[in-house]
């Protein structure tokens, strides 16, 4: 009876072993499919061009490239679609042309690599599927490449905290999918082209633009009035003229920083976007009065109009209790709480 009752156990065990073996074989087959020879060769060429840094210790020819650190693959096709290299102070080289041999790449991030130098290579123009490009906090120099406009899938461009110089290429305004641009903390000069003009009230989505801490001059493009901006940071440049077209009721703008420029326009009568949470227009030559409606912006967390030429009574009530005299100091003739009383 004991032997009869225990007889099925070996068969059950054998069946379990066969199932597990099949699953392991299937996983191995899937893993094999997840690494195309062209992608592996391209990544090994990138590794060699960068001097085989310790950061890429997992990049060995005897393992599948989709298992390598910093590499992402598409689950369906097995092609390399993402490369993200960041925070390696020992990596010293230029951006390798071999990156462009990752022909299915959708996302490329090179961030916090101070030893990465040279210009952004034109070979990257071959990455026709690229939707996100980040080269930030590096030693990369040269111009903002005009070829970026050829990347029709590019939606997000971050080239902040580098040593890029020259003008922003006008062709960048024609990039059909671009909705986010960050070129802050560089050495860019000249006028701002009508960037992100395709992200308008007639399109879906919102636009993000940061050009702060450069040497840009001239006025704001007229086309900006129609762009659905959620975030605009033009601070610390030498921009002039009228910035009020960025404002307006019904716009999705949440963050506006125009501080430390030379803008000259009247704030009287300006309609502020209802969702505005951050507004810093300090250190300009803005005149007129603070719109009374600012007190009705319930989500407003930062409001700074100091160092301008504003006059009149500071609006009271609503969200205004959050802001002290620092927000209004050094104007022509503002008065009322939290400033001295009006006479």
Provide an overview of this structure.
It is built from 3 helices and 20 strands. The protein has a 17-stranded mixed sheet that branches. The protein has a 3-stranded parallel sheet with strand order 17-19-20, with no helix packed on it. The radius of gyration is 28 Å and the shape is elongated. The relative contact order is 0.06.
List descriptors:
single chain, 343 residues, alpha/beta, 3-stranded parallel β-sheet, 20 strands, disordered N terminus
Low-confidence stretches: 1-33
Largest sheet: 17 strands, mixed
- The number of helices is 3
Category by helix and strand content: alpha/beta
Number of strands: 20
* Helix/strand order, N-terminal first: HHHEEEEEEEEEEEEEEEEEEEE
- Overall mean confidence score, pLDDT: 90
Helix content: 10-25%
What best-fitting shape do the alpha-carbon axes yield?
elongated
Distance between the termini: 108 Å
Q: If you compute it from the alpha carbons, what radius of gyration comes out, rounded to the nearest whole angstrom?
A: 28 Å
- Portion of residues in beta strands equals 25-35%
